[in-house]
Amino acid sequence: MLSVPVYNTKGEKVGEESIDASLLGGEVNKQLLHDAVLMYQANRRVGTVNTRGRADVAGSGKKLFRQKGTGNARAGSKRTNKRVGGGVAFARRNRDYSYTMPKKAVRLAARMAVLSKIQDRQILIIDGLQSTEVKTSVVAQALAAQQRPDIKKTSAENKTQQAKQTLATATLLFGLPEHDPKLYLSARNIPGVKIAPVSDFNALDVLKQRYLVLTREAFLKLKSNVERPITRRADAAVEA
């Protein structure tokens, strides 16, 4: 069993939650994570590029001058890529870079990404964070109170060094049990924070941010999702 620390909004540890590693794939497969991340990045790539080759530029295809007798180097069309105003060699065209992986592999990669965060001690749960009103300072103060779980706390000389030991200056994925408009509006303006329901998690989003922060309700929702087997018809439980 793997344990995840639980803190309150003041940064005080109030307990732990546990989850079976087998529900998250058992062991991290780096190649699978690599393949999934590449797929997501390729699918986000915009292939809108167009350059003109020698067949596309304006100009005659007539030979510029005779082959011999002029003293010049031999020359053919003025549209060649070797001349100013000519076409581009190996001209790039619009291209769709997107592709897909098997659904089971994508869902397993999302679970393994969460597993890697637990093993690297880059995950924590914040209990008691309520969305009674839209207020960025509430979420920002709760994050600033949390010590980074993967580094050892040391004495800091100034506020800047103190902030570097907390989640105030870290990149993190903030997971919610479901879409919460008030919490979303409260957290979206904080630099480095990406907020999403656990059902929308994917391998790229989990791995791209250094830390994974969940509410207690979000962790329980995540746990219930991964308890379901990975099937083609299953809902995305941690995408997955």
Report the span from N to C terminus.
19 Å
Radius of gyration computed on alpha carbons: 27 Å
Supply the CATH architecture of the largest domain. 3-Layer(aba) Sandwich
Question: How confident is the prediction overall: mean pLDDT?
Answer: 89
CATH homologous superfamily (4th level) name of the largest domain: Ribosomal protein L4/L1
Order of helices and strands: EEHHEHHEHEHEH
Helix content: 25-40%
Sheet/helix structural class: alpha/beta
According to CATH, what is the class of the largest domain?
Alpha Beta
Q: What's the CATH topology name of the largest domain?
A: Ribosomal Protein L4, Chain: A
Tally of structural domains: 2
Largest sheet: 6 strands, mixed
Low-confidence stretches: none
Assess the beta-strand content as a share of residues. Answer: 5-15%
Fold and architecture overview:
With 240 residues, the protein is α/β, with parallel strands linked by helices. The protein folds into 2 domains: 2-45 and 100-226, Ribosomal Protein L4, Chain: A, CATH 3.40.1370.10; 47-96, no CATH class. Helices cover 30% and strands 13% of the residues. It has 7 helices and 6 strands, in the order ββααβααβαβαβα. A 6-stranded mixed beta sheet has the order 2-1-3-6-4-5. α3 (136-144) packs across α5 (181-187). The protein is elongated and about 90 Å long. The mean pLDDT is 89.
Short structural description:
With 240 residues, this protein is of the alpha/beta class.
